[in-house]
Specification:
alpha+beta, Beta-Lactamase, 26 helices, 46% helix, elongated
């Protein structure tokens, strides 16, 4: 309190109204209304004390002054209130503008602010935070837990731990973390915060900021990937400045060229120059860079050790905003392996991979060049077509590895038998072709052919096997046999088949009439493909008899082809072609089904019971499922298995004895009979023969035709019959044409026979009538039975 003045000790009525100090100041601690009340009370008191009912002038003056002072105070207070309100409005407007500017700044910088009341767990976000979190403020729970729900599950522990440690350790925090937005979208933010405490150290609130750094993170990731690509790519990368001084290289550059970064830093890329390209090459490169901003192509470079390597290189110009070149980037890859692979592919495209000889494509190309040379120089030229005889048998019996080795050895011997300028090629399989240039006449070609055949006479020793192989050679001559490569090759092929027909291990020159035969073969092959579909095939049947009792014991089904233009074609003309093309498989199945069905029908119409014999070709056994086919046919036709006999050629059985044995055992399991056809024409092994589950040996007609006058034929027939009896096989002879042959076979203990003596093969329509005319009710030939 202030020290008291002199007036303070005076009576109230005597105190001066003012001594330089505003009178109202004496009452400031008390409200004006209270002051007024006290003044009135004092005046009343003074008046009462003096016993007067009226105010004294002094009291009245006092009251008046107090009222006036009050009125002045009220007026001043109102003025001050208006002033304060105005100032407050201005402050609020300034605050609003400040907050708006802050919000704009936050939006522009993608930075939002927040405050967490740690006492009430209330969280306040700025508008930018809501935009960053892509949330509606009305949907936000305004709690710390609601905030954590917005954090990516993988980062929630990180955020919670950072804030907790910050509060405990009284330090701020700053971390990067992810948000999980609607649609499982992810956004990266940078968050920071600081906690404030009261005087007792109690945490009151945490304030902080959050900034959207997704774009920054994506840029970082792109930069990281670019750096990883630069460091880890297998292509060499070089970066230069505008003056072409090397600024950076990657590890692959060092690996490819041998130069370390320190050895090329600041140098020109011409350090890799190979010297294989001329100035024009580089002028074209820089012209492309100047005009198009890039260049790519194949280039030869030099490694640090001096070795050269081919590279595929891409050079790109890097420009700044005004279009000026600031850098060059070069990316190159060593294509040495690609080059080698390309050369290998190029070689394989024109060469046989097994023998390394030219293939058909390269052979034709060389033949055309040789023809052009022969025309210019008016010299002779020959094309030789060599085919190994019975190569398939070697492949099948000894295996493909031995067959492949044989082909390689044959190619070596052929090359050794030719001049260095001659061309030899392998067209495929066991076919080899040659071009002989500069010949004067066909005798020179014949000499070469004999030399080649002689070279193949020596046995081949292959993988522990000794193999002997022969060949057939066809020869065509230019210009007599053709003017172009295709014609000469075709005619040499035709001549080769003629050599095979004449006994193999031989050569033959092309003649015009051979083309007619080749065309006939082609027509047969093409016609066979439609013969089965058009029902042009037909079965003829030839009866088989017991030689002792003349009783009918069986029928052999023989295939015929009713050609729409050529008429009836015998099997010797089309069966070999059917076997080569694989058509024999569906044709053979058709014949089997048709023969079995006919046997059932004929017996139902009164024919005496007799087995039906059907020929089975090698491909049917090798590539078809014969056991399953036979079983299916028997079931479909209702023929008893014992009434069916299958005839299999001797050569096929002996070429693949183990495979044939398995098939024959499967057929035997069905209950069908088995016979070896054309026995004596092949090279049967007695060791295998005794293992075969067969019932009958069939003597080939070639050994019957000379009976009984030919000593050779009689000896062979007696040997076969004796062998069969010793192995407990029944014997049947085919091709019996007269009674002398029948008598010889009968007295030699041959059991059965067939041939024109009894009947020629007949179509189904004639068989029943023949039976009525020639066979009695017991199945025996009558007096008119023998022709």
């Amino acid at each position: 309190m202030d020290d008291k003045g002199p007036a303070d000790n005076m009576p109230v009525s005597e105190a001066p109204v003012s001594r330089g100090i505003p009178w109202k100041d004496r009452f400031l601690p008390i409200s004006l209304s209270l002051q007024l009340g006290m003044a009135v009370a004092l005046a009343v008191y003074l008046q009462h004390d003096r016993g007067s009912a009226y105010l004294t002038p002094v009291a009245l003056l006092l009251v008046t002054l107090l009222i006036a002072a009050y009125m002045l105070s009220v007026a001043g207070r109102a003025t001050r209130m208006r002033q304060l309100a105005l100032e407050r409005g201005e402050a609020l407007e300034a605050l609003r503008q400040s907050e708006a500017r802050l919000a704009e700044a936050q939006a522009l910088s993608h930075v939002g602010s927040w405050e967490l009341d740690l006492i009430q767990n209330r969280l306040h976000w700025s508008d930018e935070v809501f935009r960053i979190f892509e949330m509606d403020p009305r949907e936000f729970g305004a709690s710390y837990e609601a905030f954590l729900d917005c954090i990516h599950p993988g980062d929630r522990d990180l955020v919670s731990r950072a804030h907790g440690e910050s509060v405990e350790q009284r330090t701020g925090y700053a971390i990067d973390h992810r948000l999980l937005l609607a649609g499982d979208r992810v956004k990266w933010v940078h968050g920071s915060g600081k906690t404030f405490y009261d005087e007792k150290g109690t945490p009151l609130r945490t304030v902080g900021m959050v900034r959207d750094i997704t774009t920054h993170k994506e840029a970082e990731e792109r930069q990281r990937l670019a750096a990883a690509l630069f460091d880890n790519t297998s292509e060499g990368v070089v970066v230069t400045d505008a003056e072409r001084c090397i600024l950076a290289v990657n590890p692959a550059f060092t690996e490819i060229t041998g130069y370390a970064w320190e050895e090329v830093a600041g140098r020109n890329p011409r350090v890799l120059k190979s010297g294989r390209h001329d100035a024009e090459y580089y002028r074209a490169m820089w012209t492309s860079l100047d005009q198009q901003g890039r260049w790519n192509g194949e280039i030869w470079n030099r490694r640090k050790d001096g070795s050269l390597f081919p590279a595929w290189q891409n050079i790109t110009c890097v420009r700044n905003g005004d279009g000026s070149i600031t850098h060059y980037t070069s990316v190159f890859s060593d294509i040495s392996q690609i080059k080698q692979s390309h050369q290998q592919l190029e070689f394989l495209a024109h060469h046989d991979p097994l023998t390394r000889l030219p293939n058909r494509l390269l052979f034709i190309d060389r033949l055309e060049h040789a023809l052009a040379h022969a025309r210019r120089n008016q010299t002779g030229l020959a094309v030789l077509f060599l085919d190994l005889d019975r190569f398939k048998n070697i492949n099948d019996s000894l295996g493909h590895p031995v067959g492949d080795e044989l082909l390689k050895e044959v190619s070596v011997r052929i090359q050794q038998g030719l001049r260095s300028d001659d061309t030899v090629a392998r067209l495929g399989g066991d076919e080899f072709t040659m071009v002989l240039e500069g010949l004067r006449d066909e005798d020179e070609a014949a000499t070469v052919a004999r030399k080649l055949l002689h070279a193949l006479e020596r046995p081949f020793h292959l993988l522990g096997h000794e193999v002997v192989v022969k060949a057939s050679i066809g020869i065509s001559l230019h210009p007599n046999d053709g003017e172009d490569a295709t014609t000469l090759l075709k005619h040499a092929d035709v001549a080769m088949y003629k050599a095979k027909e004449e006994g193999r291990d031989n050569f033959h020159f092309y003649r015009q009439e051979m083309s007619e035969r080749a065309m006939n073969r082609l027509l047969i092959e093409s016609g066979l493909r439609s013969a089965l579909e058009n029902s042009e095939l037909e079965l003829y049947y030839q009866p088989q008899f017991d030689l002792e009792s003349n009783t009918l014991v069986g029928w052999e089904a023989l295939m015929r082809w009713n050609h729409p233009e050529r008429g009836l074609i015998l099997p010797d003309e089309f069966i070999p072609m059917a076997e080569e093309t694989g058509l024999i498989i569906p044709m053979g199945e058709w014949a089997l089904r048709e023969a079995c069905a006919w046997s059932v029908r004929s017996q139902a119409m009164g024919a005496p019971p007799a087995r039906i014999s059907v020929n089975v070709a090698g491909p049917q056994i090798e590539r078809g499922n014969l056991v399953k086919t036979v079983s299916s046919v028997l079931e479909a036709t209702g023929l008893a298995p014992g009434m069916l006999e299958l005839e299999i050629t001797e050569n096929f059985i002996m070429n693949k004895p183990e495979h044939a044995l398995g098939i024959l055992q499967g057929l035997r399991g069905l209950g069908v009979g088995l016979a070896i056809d054309d026995f004596g024409t092949g090279f049967s092994s007695l060791a295998y023969l005794k293992r075969l589950p067969i019932d009958r040996l069939k003597i080939d007609r070639s050994f019957i035709s000379g009976l009984p006058m030919s000593c050779d034929d009689t000896a062979i027939c007696n040997a076969v019959i004796s062998l069969g009896r010793g192995l407990r096989f029944s014997i049947i002879a085919e091709g019996i044409e007269n009674e002398a042959q029948q008598e010889f076979l009968y007295f030699s203990s041959c059991v059965e026979g067939q041939g024109f003596l009894y009947s020629k093969p007949m179509p189904e329509s004639e068989c029943l009538q023949w039976l009525k005319d020639r066979v009695d009710g017991e199945g025996k030939l009558n007096s008119t039975g023998v022709c």
